[in-house]
Design a protein that fits this description.
Blueprint lengths: L1 H9 L21 H6 L22
């Protein structure tokens, strides 16, 4: 139907929005040479997430 095509492009208007977290910034030192040739770095980041069932109250 025409509405199916509209929903494909515009999401149907009934979808629940996902929570968007704030941006996290980390300083990472690299040399100019590493930027030029391409360097690989591994960055480990922890993220605290509340349990959906108990909402972080431990129940």
């Amino acid at each position: 139907s025409p509405m199916d095509i509209f929903d494909m492009f515009y999401g149907g208007g009934t979808r629940k929005r996902e929570n968007i977290s704030a941006n996290v910034e980390h300083q990472l030192g690299v040399t100019l040479e590493e930027l030029y040739i391409g360097a690989v770095r591994i960055l480990a980041v922890q993220k605290n997430v509340f349990c959906v069932k108990c909402e972080g109250r431990g129940g």
